[in-house]
Write a structure and sequence with these properties.
It contains 8 helices and 16 strands. The protein is an alpha/beta fold. The protein has 3 domains: 66 residues, Beta-grasp domain (Ubiquitin-like (UB roll)), CATH 3.10.20; 93 residues, Translation factors (Elongation Factor Tu (Ef-tu), domain 3); 134 residues, 3-Layer(aba) Sandwich (Rossmann fold), CATH 3.40.50.80. The chain has a 6-stranded antiparallel β-sheet. A 5-stranded parallel β-sheet has the order 14-13-12-15-16, with helices on both faces. A 3-stranded antiparallel β-sheet has the order 3-1-5. The site of flavin-adenine dinucleotide has 26 residues, from strand 9, strand 10, helix 3 and helix 8.
């Protein structure tokens, strides 16, 4: 049901997409649904009897009329989800265990900087990856993919078998983690590892559209060799007054400093009010960074997050532990 809505460009609130968080609850006014894997904690028996459904896991058994709250925000375009095919144009190791995948699409993809796509694997299952390129190049997308030891998509396919010239399928765009162009405050972009991908799209988009924002980008990795695209960001930093690039190395030095993103951020911003922050990376990094931002007096309405949850997080339920205050 959720997929059908997104494909019509109707944005209903959702988060886990696995029937466990309850964010996507809607009322079925007419018709029959199969409730699928709805968790009894997210959809109580009494709610089920009253006609509610979790639309991320429910399937229609007939034509339906549903009532839900459409999530609309001024300045944020809603692009209907579509299926795409494409060809691998390049696949390069840009840092240890990180590959940059460029896909030439057969038709243009409309998306907001920061959104993600679902990359379909040979077995038909799919994994989400954030788009690192910008809407200005809609028929050629860039993804940054980190190897997950034992991971089906990465260890089992992208790092072993996928090759230049291969055909791929994907769908998108998905997600509410996207640049808010109507906010004029200085922007803090805070990413770890391949969490850089959607942030790179945002910086480049601001540069391409001549935005008036001042932007500070923190990229957290372990050592200098784990940094990628740093020559590009260093060049942008040197050429533009509005952009500042700050690598955060947890086991190495950059500008005589060592530390993860939350630690360096706390040093630099004892007060962060008056900024808009976009945080992306592992769930642990995102949570630690949010704590620093809140301590620095940034309000939840000024913080946007994207957690790179994986199968391990989903199996452990870690993906449903989240602050209801911070938007995704
Ligand atoms: C919105 C979003 C955007 C994302 N964007 C990016 C991106 O731009 N770049 C990026 O690199 N990643 C991104 N991710 C993460 C990505 O989607 C994948 O989760 C990641 O690449 C791992 O996929 P995989 O199939 O290789 O691993 P999986 O097979 O999913 O396994 C991941 C890990 O969990 C372990 N595991 C699997 N099943 C279980 C289980 N039942 N119990 C315990 N452990 C288990 C595996 O051994 C492995 O170590 C994003 C995630 C989300 C939610
Ligand atoms: S999005 Fe449907 S239950 Fe979480």
């Amino acid at each position: 049901m959720l997929d059908a809505c997104l494909r019509e460009g109707i944005w209903l609130p959702h988060a886990c997409t696995h029937g466990t968080c309850g964010t996507c609850k809607a009322i079925v006014l007419e018709g029959d649904v199969d409730h699928g894997d709805a968790s009894p904690y997210a959809l109580l028996d009494s709610e089920r009897q009253e006609g509610c459904a979790l639309i991320c896991v429910a399937r229609p058994r007939s034509n339906l009329v549903i009532e839900g709250e459409i999530d609309a925000e001024e300045g944020v375009a809603v692009h209907p989800v579509r299926d795409y095919t494409g060809t691998v144009e390049s696949l390069d190791e840009v840092a240890p265990n990180v590959r940059r995948l460029l896909i030439a699409l057969d038709r243009p993809l409309s998306f907001n900087p920061g959104q993600y796509i679902q990359l379909v694997m040979p077995d038909g299952d799919s994994r989400p990856y954030s788009v690192a390129s910008t809407p200005a190049a809609p028929d050629r997308i860039e993804l940054h993919i980190k190897r997950s030891p034992g991971g089906v998509c990465t260890d089992g396919w992208v790092f072993k078998h996928l090759a230049v010239g291969d055909g791929v399928s994907l769908s998108g765009p998905y997600g509410r983690f996207s640049f808010r162009p109507l906010r004029s405050e200085p922007v803090l972009l805070l990413g770890s590892g391949t969490g850089l991908a959607p942030l790179k799209s945002m910086v480049q988009h601001i540069a391409e559209t001549g935005g008036e924002h001042s932007v500070i980008l923190y990229h957290g990795v372990a050592t200098r060799t784990d940094l990628y695209d740093h020559e590009l960001f260093e060049a942008w930093d040197a050429e533009n007054d509005w952009f500042s690039y700050r690598p955060a190395l947890s086991r190495d030095e950059w500008n005589s400093r060592t530390g993860r993103v939350p630690a360096l951020l706390a040093e630099d911003y004892p007060r962060a009010s008056g900024h808009t922050a976009y945080v992306c990376g592992s769930p642990a990094m995102v949570n630690d960074t949010l704590r620093v931002l809140m301590k620095a007096r940034l309000f939840p309405r000024d913080i946007f997050r994207e957690d790179f949850f994986d199968s391990r997080d989903r199996a452990s339920g870690a993906h449903i532990v989240r602050s209801p205050l911070i938007r995704r």
